[in-house]
Sequence to fold (127 residues):
Amino acid sequence: MNDDELAAGLAPTPGYRYADVVGDRLFVAGQVPHDEHGTMVGVGDPRRQATQCLDNLRSVIGVHGFELADVRQLTIYVVGEHTNLTTAWDAVTAWFEGPVPPATLLGVNDLGYTDQLVEIDATILRA
Fold:
């Protein structure tokens, strides 16, 4: 974690970094639905959690000098019933307000934090 990420409103991440830039690539850790204080948002609401993950992703991308257009692929991990997957996907399509980058939507058994339903990672490559 660096000071620019904190200044952008991302929560502190003890023990790991949000991202590393290597050449024209940005390697981003999976984004979780935490606000700037590290509080889980949208407990029980996959739509709200997906939106928070994407808002955090946008912050990480911008802090490191990349653009949303540089997102080449998304993986969206969703806990729970099939309706959670479709609800999270609806949030992703609404958030992008246009074509979504190639994406994989996966149902999973569990994620890293209590009450976490959604996590999103991305492949970023400067255009």
In short: Strands lie at 19-22, 25-28, 71-79, 103-108, 118-125.
